[in-house]
Amino acid sequence: MTDSKSSRPTAKRPPPPIPVSILTGFLGAGKTTLLNELLQDPGLAGTLVLINEFGEIGLDHLFVEAIDRDMMLMASGCLCCTIRGELIDTLEDILRRRDNNRIAAFNRVLIETTGLADPAPVMQTFMQHPYLSMRFYPETLVTVVDALTGATSLDTHPEAVKQAAMADRIVISKVDMAEGSGAGTELEALHQRLADLNPGAELIEKRPGTISAATLFDGSLYDPSGKSADVSRWLQAEAVEAHATGHDHMHHDHEHAHDPNRHDAHVRACCLRAATPLNPANFELFIEMVRKVHGQHLLRVKGIVALADDPGRPLVIHGVQHIFHPPVRLQQWPTADRTTRLVCILHDLDPAHIAGLWDAFNGGIAIDRPDAAGLADNPLKPNSGGLLA
Fold it and tell me: Phi and psi dihedrals of 298, rounded to 5?
């Protein structure tokens, strides 16, 4: 295909990237029950659902058309596919079938993990792969927590802590059973514990009429399309900052408030801010330093950044441990707030240390943080192909 004006071949534009959401939760939390309900929601029409086994999905109440032995079309308009082999192979195969019109086009992917899954590798699958990172972008991580046994799971299983700590939204299931058994106080304590663990996540009690596809999955900021992005819902920076202030006060007044032996005591959240646009080179050095030296401690990093080279078009970044999705420039700021905000969920890493690095690389810009600690011991070695390359 050529351009009639220049007689030069025109580059074929890649199709718009497809949002990917993840539904996770510890064993018995009720995520499959939730998925069964969501499959009846018209809001999931056009969604490709990746599940481990069809046997766990209640198909009796759904009209199902078999496409092949690995995929079924639901009456709701969802395509459901079992995950066979590596997730990368599954996603590549599905894209080939979609691009060749062998299956209906879909506008969202929803992945249900196993109860013991660490969500980090699942997210990294489509964030670091050269091709998949162009065709998909991370939308929402939803974690289901059982109102009756959630506290016990957090106490005894680090996987449950990680699932909740990384979530954008946390659905508390079996609320009616907890209230019916007189466990109202325990439910309130679970609310507080989850808010301490992940202050940036929305807590949603699963009650009749409260759960929908729009409630759980819409509102991603990481959307390269032209539509207005919901920055407040995606980033939840103010909630993280408010919690940090209250937590520091509680910590100083009540040193015994947290049991250091609990798994979730190792998880901390912080929000870094900058009121003026950042030097692009300094910002990239900061990200490279953090992910190379402290990558294993970064459960999640997401932010909207004003860079001095083009302050009217903010950069959206999203990382899981040392893997960052290719950043995207929005065409404009989604709200009147044009400050840089970076939310970090950390494991076994003092937020003051990250804040100290932020201060150092950005010229001592004032940010919302505890007192800063020193710089990392290992200096960053320049490399090509960094985050902003």
Answer: -95, 100
CB atoms within 10 A of CB 165: 28
Give the per-residue SS3 of 99-162: HCCCCCCCCEEEEECCCCCCHHHHHHHHHHCCCHHHHEEEEEEEEEEECCCHHHHHHHCHHHHH
From 205, 117, 203, 101, select the one nearest 158 (Cα to Cα). Answer: 117
CATH 3.40.50.300 occupies which residues in the chain? Answer: 18-217
Q: Give the pLDDT score at 188.
A: 93
Burial 21-49 (b: 16+ CB within 10 A, else e): bbbbbbeebbbbebbbebbebebbeebbb
Measured between alpha carbons, how far apart are the two ends of the chain, in Å? 29
Task: Please name the amino acid found at residue 9.
Answer: P
Helix (H, G, I), strand (E, B) or coil at 81: strand
Q: What angle do CA 150, 346, 196 make, to 5 degrees?
A: 40
What pLDDT shows up at residue 387?
Answer: 65
Name the CATH superfamily, with its identifier, for domain 18-217.
P-loop containing nucleotide triphosphate hydrolases (3.40.50.300)
What's the pLDDT at 231?
A: 75
Phi, psi of 190 (to 5 degrees): -65, -40
Q: Check residue 75 and give its pLDDT.
A: 80
The β-bridge relationship of strands 202-205 and 108-112 is: unpaired
Query: 10-residue block means of pLDDT along the chain (389 residues)?
Result: 52 80 95 90 91 74 70 84 86 93 92 93 91 92 96 94 96 92 85 95 91 85 62 83 68 46 84 94 94 94 95 94 92 91 95 93 53 34 47
Bridge partners for 269 per DSSP: 345
Three-state DSSP state, 297:
helix
Provide the residue type at 91 as one letter. Answer: L
H or E element, residue 91: helix 87-99
Q: Could you tell me the two tokens for 370?
A: 């505890």
Contact in structure between 240 and 345 (CB atoms under 8 Å): no
CATH level 2 (architecture), domain 265-361: 2-Layer Sandwich (3.30)
